Structures are given as structure tokens and as C-alpha cells.
Amino acid sequence: MKRFYALGFLALVAFDTLAQISFKLAGEHALPLELSADWLVRVFGHPWIYGAFIGYLGAFFTWMTLLEHAPIGPAFAASHLEVVSVLAISAVWFNEPIGWPQVAGAVLILGGIACLARSEADADAEPGSGHAPSHHGA
Prior knowledge:
Blueprint (H helix, E strand, L loop, with lengths): L1 H27 L8 H8 L3 H22 L2 H7 L2 H13 L6 H26 L13
């Protein structure tokens, strides 16, 4: 099951990152904003807008599948890994500066996910941890 979680979260991060980077690239071609047929043709004529749609659809279905199986606390925290991946890709691909606040935020996100995953693993390892269904009055 841990392999399922790991692959699921990697897929979620990949889809979310694809969506964010695609929106960035599509947005560069969407300017100037205007309400016209020409603008819609310009936006939907650029392939990155479809990358954004694929990313969001993939993230949605991956997230729904993970929520069905994964513990909600670590799952919700891990769903924010795309913040770290988008930050890293933005620095490399778009030459966007990364300062100490961004690095500290990324470290806190990673640390929080690690703490929640560790506490979930510890709770699963303890007998009578409350993760088994209760059969009161049977």
C-alpha cells in the first residue's frame, strides 16, 4: 500500500506541476487580455492551455483515488508538494529568483509532510491505534 501512496503522490505532484507550469506558459501568450473571438483563438490555439487542462483533470482523478485509500492528514499535506516542485521548476526554467522565504517555506512543507507521514506510520504500528473498525455491542 505504501508503494501505491508513493506512486499516487508522485502522479499528483506531476499533474499539479504540469497544470501550473502550463498555465504560466499559456498565460504568456494570452496577453493582452480582451474579450474577443481573436483572444479565444489565440489562447486555445496555444498547446500549453491543453497541458493545463490535462494537468487539472489528471490531478483531480488522482486526488479522488488517493482520498479513497490514503489517510486524509498526510494526503492533504502531500497534496501541497506541487508548491515545492513549481518553485524549483520556476527557478530553473523561468530564472525566477528564490530567496530565503521561499526556501524556508519549502522546507516547512517538506518537514510537515514528513512529520505527518511519520505519525501515521507510528499510529499504524501501534496495536489498538484506533485504525481498525470498532464493533461495539456486537
